[in-house]
Amino acid sequence: IVAFMLSGAYGGVAGALYAGMIHYVSPDTYSLAIMFLLLAMVIAGGRDSIYGAALGAVVLIFVRQQFESFQRYQQIAYGALIVAMVLFAPSGLAGLATSLWRRLFSRPPAVLDEDEVEGLGVDDERPVLRELDEARAERRPVLEIRDVTKRFKGLVALRGVSFDVAAGSIHGIVGPNGSGKTTLFNIVTGVYGASSGSVRMAGRRVSGRRAYRVARQGVGRTFQTVRLFRSLTVRENVMVALDDSRPHSIWRYLLAPWLVLLRERELRRLADRHLRRYQLASVADFLGTNLPYGQQRLVEIARAMATEPKLLLLDEPAAGLNSTEQRDLGELIRRIRADGTTVLLIEHNMALVMSVCERVTVLSSGAVLAEGAPEEIARDRRVIEAYLGTALLPDVEESLA
């Protein structure tokens, strides 16, 4: 909304100045040819860069002046230029220049061994860790869910769900498809509001708050399907999470752009530190969506952890991973917990749940079906029936025995 408002303000000021300069305005002043020219400027220069758009404007105005005698073919030329740039240089002239610069002058990032990774500043003492230590000492839950119900008109997705997540633990949520697991995550993170009930984080109510306020209170999450910013590199995806600028700081872009550059340099440094922590430094300059699926999952977790959350919500992180990647994921989840972050995990891969979780809550048809240690859940008749049906219940019980 802020970006739309600023662009509209620039357009309004430019139009007023232009009208004052020519002393005449008519519908022909802003013809279709002008619209094509403006669109071609942005696409040719690079729609991901302010400097690229300015470069595209300079180049096209120069070309237009040189070929004024061919005005009748201008729209065809602009159309051909747009198609050519989309096919062969989707990032525009600015993107070509950036790629050339990286190829000529960028050094490949050093890959750290595990001892160096463990010694990075990510493990430094943080206020979050002190709060979690206090919660552990006082045996207080970091997340309290009480009688949460969610209705979508005639559909009741959650029915009076209640459970606690202990500070410093790995807590699993399992259940058949459609049991309300992701809906519960959306309520905890402020994407949805609960129809009734409450959610408290470290004793403070978070249900009913906007999603960005919940995130600032120390809740990070990943999604069931990977949601990386398509036009950003791996480093830039992490920088987005690190940037906690408020909307009122937009004035810096107009009045003090050097402060923006200094802040961006600091964000790059912090992002590189997190990427080394998760062994992603070698792909920092790659587009996140161009990575293998397993690495995309890892980038999403690194981005969520960049906010230093008290509570990390992982929504089916093992989906689509092979056995080796699943094993590495289990080790990563344990390391995140060891760093002081409580983990709440939705997962269908029961082997992963049984190996990393200390407590498991089972949802079925929007309600809590069972809760307990992984070993107890694996032997619960109701859980086996919900997953496999009553016909296979004797065979499963015999195998467990």
Can you describe what's shown?
This protein has 401 residues and is an alpha/beta fold. It has 18 helices and ten strands. The chain has a six-stranded mixed β-sheet, sandwiched between helices. A hairpin with a 2-residue loop joins strand 9 and strand 10. Helix 2 runs parallel beside helix 4, helix 2 runs parallel beside helix 5 and helix 10 packs parallel to helix 13. It is elongated, with a radius of gyration of 27 Å. About 5% of the residues have low confidence.
Structural class: alpha/beta
Helical content stands at 40-55%
Side-by-side strand order of the widest sheet: 6-7-8-3-9-10
Whole-number mean pLDDT: 81
Offer a quick outline of the entry.
With 401 residues, this protein is an alpha/beta fold. It has helices at residues 2-22, 32-45, 50-66, 74-88, 92-105, 114-118, 127-137, 181-188, 211-216, 234-242, 251-255, 257-277, 293-305, 323-338, 350-356, 374-378, 381-388, 393-400; strands at 141-152, 155-166, 170-174, 196-201, 204-205, 219-221, 311-315, 342-346, 359-364, 367-372.
